[in-house]
Amino acid sequence: MSDLHALQTELAQALMSVRPSTLAPLQGDALADAESRLFVYHRGYRLRLRDALATEFPGLALMMGRRFTSMLDDYVMVHPSSHYNIRWHGAGLATFLEQTMPWRTQPAWAEMAKLDWAISIAFDAADEAGISAADLSGVPAEAWAELRLHPLNHLQWLTLTCNAEAFRRAADQGAERPRLRRLDHPRQFVVWRPAMDVRYRRVTPDELSALRGMARGESFSQLCERLAAQHVAASAPQRMLGHLMRWLGEGLIGRSELPSRPAM
Question: For residue 218, is pLDDT > 50?
Answer without folding.
Answer: yes
